[in-house]
Design a protein that fits this description.
The chain is built from five helices and 20 strands. The chain is mainly beta. The structure holds the ligand Nc1nc2c(c(=O)[nH]1)N[C@H]1C(S)=C(S)[C@@H](COP(=O)(O)O)O[C@H]1N2 and molybdenum atom.
Length: 331
């Protein structure tokens, strides 16, 4: 494996990191890095408590009263349906651990969290209504006039569900109470909150973000991050690196770390993970490192062989890519 160019590494902290990149070899840069840019490690729980779960929406948190709420299933159906909250709670439910990530999440970013969701498979609800043969897309409408769609194929897969519980309690208002879509493997955009209507249409539907040029597919890209140490820290000796890797719905088969800017890649230890739809935590014990300055990066591969690319992409139009890289000093 050839050495990665510096351009192919993403730096952690905006302006300061850019400055470091351009004058990386100078003592002054080292001084600046050590003095000002060191950030503490992230210590993440594997399941994100609801109060810490990231929140993103276009148009503010919607307040929905269950008493005034019901969910119509309309459009190209044999039998239009309207389900109350009580109807939905009575249906057979499934529970899955699913990590959610915003399409706007940087490779080193915070817009990703993991929860256990309970709800009703969308396919059960669609089958209740009965599908016309011409259905192409299932449109998910939210109380904020937000909408997005998934293909009928995807919708009929049993892992797509309408969730009413998050980590064992009713959805908090900011996460979509009373009902939201959970679509494993697809960025947050299609995990519509505050559902008000499910509509079946015969064409390729363009939702809120698609009308602004964002992806209509939304497949999550393989990504990994270094959470400990934070960037620009000085280690005093042996150190346990840690972080996460995430692939959407395929699980993670391998995470590798480089301590020398990409010349040599070393497999790290993956922690047991109960769900293919969740992030995977990894660890690497670096024993007796020699004093110096190190360019550290990680890369992940999922269970269907998709590898994290070093190609740097901005969020628009279909999500970020690149490698998360940090500078680490050893004294
Ligand atoms: N109704 C509605 N649902 C929405 C959105 C929105 O703006 N309105 N934003 C989406 C986006 S971009 C993301 S990343 C996820 C975030 O879900 P969370 O706030 O529960 O983490 O909600 C999605 N569902
Ligand atoms: Mo998002």
């Amino acid at each position: 494996m050839s050495s990665l160019s510096r351009r192919s590494f993403l730096q952690y902290a905006g302006a300061g990191a850019a400055m470091l990149l351009t004058s990386e070899k100078s003592e002054a840069a080292n001084f600046i890095a050590k003095k000002f840019l060191a950030l503490p490690p992230r210590k993440l729980p594997f399941i994100t408590p609801n109060k810490d779960f990231y929140i993103v929406q276009c148009c503010g948190v919607q307040k929905v009263e269950v008493a005034n709420w019901s969910l119509p299933i309309t459009g190209l159906v044999k039998q239009p349906l309207r389900l109350t909250y009580a109807d939905i709670l009575k249906m057979p439910s499934i529970e899955k651990m699913v990590t959610l990530q915003c399409i706007d999440n940087e490779v080193s970013g915070e817009l990703i969290s993991n929860a256990v969701w309970r709800g009703v498979p969308l396919s059960d609800i669609l089958n209740k209504a009965g599908l016309s043969p011409s259905v192409a897309d299932v449109v998910l409408h939210g109380a904020d006039d937000y909408s997005d769609s998934i293909t009928l194929d995807r919708a009929m897969n049993y892992d797509v569900f309408l969730a009413y519980h998050m980590n064992g309690v009713p959805l908090p208002p900011e996460h979509g109470f009373p009902l939201r879509a959970v679509v494993p493997g697809i960025y947050g955009i299609k995990n519509v909150k505050w559902l008000t209507k499910i509509e079946l249409v015969g064409h390729d539907y363009q939702g809120y973000w698609q009308k602004k040029g964002w992806t209509d597919e939304g497949t999550i890209k393989v990504k990994s991050r270094i959470d400990a140490p934070g960037p620009y820290n000085t280690l005093k000796g042996s150190y346990r690196f840690s972080g996460y890797a995430f692939s959407g719905y395929n699980g993670i088969s391998r995470v590798e770390i480089t301590l020398d800017g990409g010349t040599r890649w070393i497999p790290v230890k993956l922690k047991p993970t109960p769900s293919h739809y969740s992030w995977v935590f990894w660890e690497y014990f670096w024993k007796d490192p020699k004093p110096g300055k190190y360019q550290v990066a990680v890369r992940a591969t999922d269970n269907i062989g998709r590898s994290q690319t070093d190609f740097i992409a901005r969020p628009f139009p279909d999500g970020t890519s690149g490698l998360h890289s940090i500078v680490t000093f050893v004294e």
